[in-house]
Fold:
Amino acid sequence: MTAGRSAQRAGWKGKLRELAPKFALSLGSLFFAYVACELAVFPVALSYFSYKLQWRVDLPFLVFTQSTKRHRIPKDYVLILGDSYAVGLGNDWDNMNRWTRRAIGSQAALHAKTGRDIITMGHAGAGSLGGLIGDPAGKFAFLNRTVLYKLPQPNLVLAYFYEGNDLDNNIRDLASRYTGKYDSARLKDPEYFKRFIREAVVEQDETYKRTRRFHLDQNLVFWKFCKSSFRKLWEVLSRVVPEASAAAPSAGGGRPLSTAASGYLAPASFKGTHIRLGSRTLPVPDRLQGPSLELTPEEADLAVYVFEQALSWLKDFFPGTKIIVVYIPSPISTYELASDWVSVEAYHERAPYHEARKVGPASDRIAGKIEGAALRQGCGFVDTRPVMRSAAKTELLHGGSDWMHLTRKGYSVLAEAILPIDGVRR
Structure:
């Protein structure tokens, strides 16, 4: 028995010695294949990912999946910053085939018409602090710590200002980030405000926080993609339903219509908001975004100040880069109004009903203030309202499942308004 067992053990040892080189060769081949994918294949493959695959990619690297560029690493490129209008959200985004990689927003039209690399870092729901500062600061800081994914400075920055709620978002951001934490008497001190931006905006950005604890494994983008994909596959196969997350902000950002705002009674003559489209008069949904009709003049000035300080920070962050402020009208101020009253999305628990005659002057006032802020900071300014209003005389630029944002046609018109800017075309 002992001799038999010894012979058996000897046989197993021999087999192990015989299999060991093959096993080592397999492991080596697998490791080599992984390294090849991580260093050579995956960085190129990112440029061809559909939207379904893109959201398995670590967030800072999503910029490399965008289809509106010709190079793996964008070259001599235009960077779009702002809120959901910079992203390209809207009816066509909501209803697109997620297995495609065809972009929807203005970046797609600009890329098609210029052939340039057009990249967006739009942040849905963000005001000037998040859209022009927090998001780009975090992503650039993180990516430029990596080995293969360093992002050069853009040739041109298009800073989108959306009339519909950017001022409201700026007031909201001051209330949540500044009030009670910083000296109210020094709010209008630009140097003190820069300190606030650094501490409360840049250093609090989640991607920027990752930069401060950056490790070598942050370069393993393919490895993280595989882990995320297998985790998702396991959830599907095991029928694990993730716990419902907190409600996301409305697509247009800012605070949705509150209970208090819902309590306001509509004027007796209000029969819904109507617009003129060619020879027709059409009803449009209630509670569309307008030119911050609910803000007082003092609040509007304060919100514009926040925007201007964000531009100042952006200039310092991208030294030598040309920055153009792109003014985008709200849905209510894009069309010719055919009703005496309009219903707008209410912020700050204020009345959602306003006289239609106030819409145009309010839009003009905000545009004038934003242009002044841009010029004081040495930035360019383009008002897209004339081009968009001309197109909106005969066709809808918003609509479908999302009246807060532009359709594909609307984004194409927005791009047409931007194209004449010096520096957009090569």
